[in-house]
User: Fold this.
Amino acid sequence: QVQLVESGGGLVQAGGSLRLSCAASGRPFTTYAMGWFRQAPGKEREFVAVISWSGSRTYVADSVKGRFTISRDNAKNTVYLQMNSLKPEDTAVYYCARDSRRFYTGTNYAGQTLYDAWGQGTQVTVSS
Assistant:
């Protein structure tokens, strides 16, 4: 069983930046895609970004495109979410998750049910 621990959240002013980290331990990390989701108060959890198991492909939601970047360091079993030009509407709890499909090479990544391990979340608050 893989364990995921997020860190790096906090309070930042609009226009600022944060980098979230997600450290994985337990079962192999390098052969699975990793994603980031977020849940704002009173809203459903939504897809933010995903990186393929090899790191060669990334996808981000339209709402964060051009501002957020996902990356991974397989040697450190860690995935990152660099968030720039933050907006108040980015305020949410951010979760990392592991894709359940080993060596998946398709493009279907946004559904939460595709992920079988989740971290506890880290709070990001963007003030205006």
